Automatic annotation (TrEMBL):
Gene3D superfamilies: Glycogen Phosphorylase B. It comes from the Archaea. This is D-inositol-3-phosphate glycosyltransferase. Keywords: Glycosyltransferase, Transferase. GO terms for molecular function: D-inositol-3-phosphate glycosyltransferase activity. The gene is mshA. Its EC number is 2.4.1.250. It is an enzyme of class 2 (transferase). The keyword Iron-sulfur does not apply.
Length: 448
C-alpha cells in the first residue's frame, strides 16, 4: 500500500535555487488538452517558488523549445539537441504514450514503441517521469477505436466489422507490451510520479514488479494540482447568469473532451431528478487520441445533441456547446454547478475530478480503481455504470451534501499548486543529491 505524505513548508525568504529543469510535454497551451494544461500549471508553480524551468513541446504550443510531435520519429534526437543547448540538471517527462507516437503491430507485439524510446535508453542526466496512463486489461480493450465491438448488441451494419476485429486484436496482443513499455521507462527513470496510489500500484504490479520493493519505492504519489482561476469566490447565481443557466435547480455537470471513454451515452437513459438539471460541455483536443463514437447513430461532431431525448424535452439536459473553455470560464462553470458526474468507461486519472474538487464539488463516478481511491476518502460516490445507479447517487449526494463538502474543503489544501510544486522540488533535490549533481540545494522562497 502506498501513502502520500504531504509536508507543509514554511520558509524564510532566501536566494533562489540554481536548479534548471527541462520539462517535456508534447501538449502545451494554447494546444488544448489535459496533459498540456497540467504541465503549464506545474511549470508556473515551480517558477513561482524560484526554480528555472523550460518547456519542450509541439510547434503549436508556446514552450521555450519546440519540435516534438506524435508523428515525428526524430523526437529523441530533438530532445538531445535541446539538452545540449539548455544543459539542465534533470529532465522531467510528462508521459502519455500516444503523445509521443505509440506504435503497435498486429502481428509482432514486441515491436511496440514510441518516438522517445531512444531518449530513455541513452539519456545521461537524471530522468523523472510522470505517468498519465496505465490500464487493467478490460479498460485497455475499451480504448479500441471501435468500442462497439465490446458489446455485441451495439454492433451495427454501418461499421466495418473487419476493421473492428483488427483493431480489437491489435490492442489485445499488445497489452503486455504496453505494460512492459511502462516498466522500462519506470526503470530508466531516477524517480516516477503518479496522481494516485492506484496508478502507481497498477504500473508497479505489471510484470510482477510489485515483488521488487525497489521498483515500488521508486514511485511518488503527488496529486494533480487544482485551484480556482479566480481572485475571489464567485457566487452561484452570478456564475449561472454567466452561462444563462437556470437558477432554481441543482446542477449536475458533465464536462470533458468528447471521447467514447467518457461514457456520456448514459445520458440517453438517465432519470434526472425533478429538482436537478444536467449541464454538458464537451470539447476536442488537438491530437484526439481517443476519437468519439456516435451515440444513438448521431454524428460524432455533436456527441450529445439529444434532440429527441425525454430529458431534453423536459429541459433536464442543457448542452452548452462551448467547446474548449479558458481556465477562467472553467472556474465559473464549476462554481455554477453542484456536483460533477464522471460515468467513464476508462480512466487512469481525472484532472476534471481534481478541478471539480478544487471548486468544492463532490463527484459521482463509475466504480473504477482511480475513482474508488478518492471515494474512500469521502470526496464522492462510485457506482456501477448504470443510469439508475447514477440517479440514486445524485439523490444520496444531495441528502449528505454538507458532509461531502466539508471533507473536500480539508482535502483541497493538498491540491494547491504551491504545495504540488514544493513536493516536486523536494523530489528533484533528492534525486540530484543521489546523483552528485547538486548538493545541499536550499529550498526556494515560498509564501508563508
Amino acid at each position: 500500500m502506498l501513502y502520500v505524505t504531504i509536508v507543509s513548508y514554511k520558509l524564510d525568504d532566501i536566494n533562489k535555487s540554481t536548479l534548471k529543469i527541462l520539462m517535456i510535454s508534447t501538449e502545451f497551451p494554447p494546444i488544448p488538452g489535459g496533459v498540456g494544461r497540467y504541465t503549464k500549471n506545474l511549470t508556473d508553480g515551480l517558477k513561482k517558488i524560484g526554480i528555472k524551468v523550460s518547456v519542450l513541446c509541439n510547434e503549436k504550443g508556446k514552450g521555450d523549445f519546440i519540435g516534438i510531435d506524435p508523428k515525428n520519429e526524430n523526437n529523441s534526437k530533438i530532445i538531445f539537441e535541446v539538452l545540449d543547448e539548455y544543459d539542465p540538471d534533470l529532465v522531467h517527462i510528462q508521459l502519455e504514450h500516444g503523445l509521443y507516437g505509440l506504435k503497435m503491430n498486429s502481428f509482432n507485439p514486441r515491436s511496440l514503441s514510441t518516438n522517445i524510446d531512444k531518449f530513455y535508453k541513452e539519456c545521461k542526466i537524471p530522468i523523472i517521469t510522470t505517468f498519465h496512463s496505465a490500464y487493467p486489461l478490460h479498460q485497455w480493450m475499451e480504448l479500441s477505436k471501435h468500442p462497439n465491438l465490446l458489446n455485441k448488441n451495439m454492433i451495427t451494419v454501418s461499421i466495418n466489422l473487419i476493421n473492428q476485429i483488427g483493431d480489437y486484436w491489435k490492442r489485445f496482443i499488445n497489452y503486455r507490451s504496453f505494460n512492459l513499455a511502462n516498466k522500462q521507462k519506470m526503470q530508466a527513470s531516477q524517480a516516477n510520479i503518479a496522481f494516485s496510489s492506484y496508478l502507481a500500484q497498477l504500473i508497479s504490479e505489471n510484470e510482477n514488479a510489485i515483488k521488487d520493493q525497489k521498483s515500488l519505492s521508486n514511485f511518488s504519489v503527488i496529486y494533480h494540482g487544482a485551484e480556482p482561476n479566480m481572485n475571489k469566490y464567485v457566487k452561484k447565481r452570478e456564475a449561472r447568469q454567466f452561462f444563462s443557466l437556470p437558477l432554481n435547480r441543482k446542477i449536475a455537470l458533465f464536462f470533458g473532451f468528447m471521447t467514447h471513454t467518457k461514457g456520456w451515452d448514459i445520458l440517453d437513459n438517465l432519470d434526472v431528478p425533478d429538482d436537478w438539471v444536467v449541464v454538458v460541455n464537451q470539447s476536442e483536443n488537438l491530437f484526439n487520441l481517443a476519437k468519439p463514437s456516435p451515440i444513438n447513430n448521431q454524428k460524432s461532431q455533436k456527441i450529445l445533441s439529444h434532440t429527441d431525448n425525454k430529458n431534453s424535452q423536459n429541459g433536464k439536459i442543457i448542452n452548452l456547446n462551448r467547446g474548449f473553455l479558458t481556465d477562467k470560464e472553467l472556474s465559473i462553470l464549476f462554481y455554477s454547478s453542484d456536483i460533477i458526474v464522471l460515468p467513464y468507461t476508462v480512466t487512469s486519472g481525472s484532472g476534471v475530478m481534481f478541478d471539480a474538487l478544487a471548486h468544492g464539488l463532490p463527484f459521482i463516478a463509475t466504480d473504477l480503481g482511480f475513482f474508488k481511491e478518492f471515494a474512500d476518502k469521502g470526496l464522492g460516490i462510485v457506482v456501477k455504470r448504470r443510469p439508475n445507479e447514477f440517479a440514486k447517487a445524485i439523490k444520496k449526494l444531495e441528502s449528505e451534501y454538507l458532509h461531502y463538502t466539508q471533507r473536500i474543503e480539508n482535502f483541497n489544501k493538498e491540491l494547491t499548486w504551491e504545495n504540488v510544486a514544493l513536493q516536486h522540488f523536494d523530489l528533484y533535490r533528492n534525486i540530484l543529491d543521489k546523483n552528485d549533481r547538486i548538493k545541499n540545494t536550499p529550498f526556494p522562497f515560498v509564501s508563508t
